Amino acid sequence: MTNKINMVQAVNQALINEMELDDRVIVYGEDVGLEGGVFRATVDLQQKFGKERSFDTPLAESAIVGTAIGMAINGLKPVVELQFMGFSYPAFNQIISHVSRMRNRSRGRFTLPMVIRAPYGGGIRALEHHSESTEAIYAHIPGLKVVIPSTPYDAKGLLISAIRDPDPILFLEPKRIYRAFKQEIPAGDYELPIGKAKIVQEGEDITIVSWGAMVRDVQKAVEMVAKENIYPEVIDLRTISPMDRETIVESVKKTGRILIVQEAPKSFSVGSEIVSIVNEKAFLYLEAPPTKLAGFDTIFPLPRGEQYYIPSPERIAATIQEIVNY
Predict the structure, then answer these.
(1) Which of 188, 259, 309, 312 matches a 20 to 30 Å C-alpha distance to 323?
(2) Rounded to whole angstroms, how far apart are CA atoms 11 and 312?
């Protein structure tokens, strides 16, 4: 049995699924309970499972994450929501000092089966701190997994896997595509492996690696260059950390070219890490320099500047042509 739903609904389904199967799963955060979250990803959870399992918190991100650490150590499986990724910084000390280190600190005696959810990225004409795309900061922290879905199907399967994982996971949800499209997905239980990329489309001329909302823009660009008889291979990274290096390297060995498309600033980024991997593992196969197409090294602009900041399908298509014709 399947149903056709958008990404917000897929996240909601995943949470309901896990809360029904395991009474240790607790969901909370700012406006998560009564209102069902600012984007309504947690709607009806409090009505279904009561105020002890889905509830609102004060505006205190450090406290939200800090209490989840204690819950996870003591046998619960907290799923906490930080209202926007840009609001995660007050909790950074808890995340880097405790969340990511507990397994190592206790030499495996304790793990933290907890998920930190956060809407992330731009494109919805939001205010400052509401459009951050700083996944590279968190991917740099050993002991923390970072997952970013790009479709409703992936959102549900990856979130179920994240909740069941014994280690802490930062689950970033690209809000620009929360309601952008619907997809037929299984109504029941399914998991997707964390740490495994997805080949969205096979090709032979160039490898394109992306994640989150940018995957759809890459697919639009691929349709444009198909008119020029250019056929890219598109990889959705899905998991930023741990990264599926093997899939990237094998694809580049086949195509000889790579373009990384990201919304985040260009410097010191996930794209930079992918370029490094390709240079180390597939350098002799390259027919053009590894290339990054990214946001600019500036603070994310206010609404009128968004369309200039986020790489558009047209910019992506033009860059693909430049690399193929190098």
Answers:
(1) 309
(2) 26
- Assigned fold of 2-186: Rossmann fold (3.40.50)
Alpha-carbon dihedral sign for residues 119, 121, 122, 127: positive
Known catalytic residue at 98: no
Q: How many Cα atoms occupy the beta-carbon half-sphere of 185 within 13 Å?
A: 24
Q: Strand, helix or coil at 260?
A: strand
Distance, in Å, from the CA atom of 100 to the CA atom of 97, rounded to the nearest integer, reads 7
Q: Where are the domains of the chain?
A: 2-186, 198-324
Catalytic, out of 98, 129, 130, 140: 130
CATH class of 198-324: alpha beta
CATH topology of 2-186 equal to that of 198-324?
yes
Q: Residue 33 gets which letter from DSSP?
A: S
pLDDT per position as a tens digit, 22-46: 999 999 999 999 999 999 999 999 9
